[in-house]
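Hi all, a correction to my earlier message: I attached the wrong file for Dephospho-CoA kinase. Here's the right sequence:
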Amino acid sequence: MWVLGLTGGIGSGKTTVSDLFASQGIEVVDADVIARHIIDKDTPALAAVTERFGGQALQQDGALNRAWLREKIFAEPDEKQWLNELTHPLIRKQILEQLKAADSPYVILSAPLLVENNLTKFCDRVLVVDVSEDTQRERTLKRDNVSAEQIEQILAAQATRQDRLNAADDVINNDGPLEDLAPQVAKLHQNYLKFAASARSSKSQQADQAPES
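and the right structure:
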């Protein structure tokens, strides 16, 4: 399967872009969705979190108190490292299983930390949704119930804008209006269909040419 890595910082509009690709029939493996479900109610990961932090990490219904945990790990880097060591192997396992199961012409691995967590090694090409940091702050304040201080902590924890651009094969600029996105996605989609078809053809030829044992 030919894999497109899709990433962008907080507030970049990465999900909007992945939805546009999905509307073209392309399957999207979303690392954020996987990460949320890894610590769902009654999972081993949630049991480990509860053992670590106690009942304050839970809501009244027994589900994870995500807002509390988010504040906790941003305030205490050692706890963030512990949580990453718990969840990252589980997340990667799910990512690889879902990539393998995809059957669209190509598949997208969407991850805000694609660069930081070295998930680029699973990708044939990387697309970055790029916006200015001012745009990130403005959109995140409007969208999420978080403080300006917490937004700065999130920005500091993610790769820099330049780091993401350095890892990019393709870039979508999303500082403009929403209607500017669809034409950019449509053009890239046609390119990716060609890349994926070419990769399949190459692998088929290699298989045909492989000597029989």
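Sorry for the mix-up. The chain has two domains: 1-26+104-203, 35-103.
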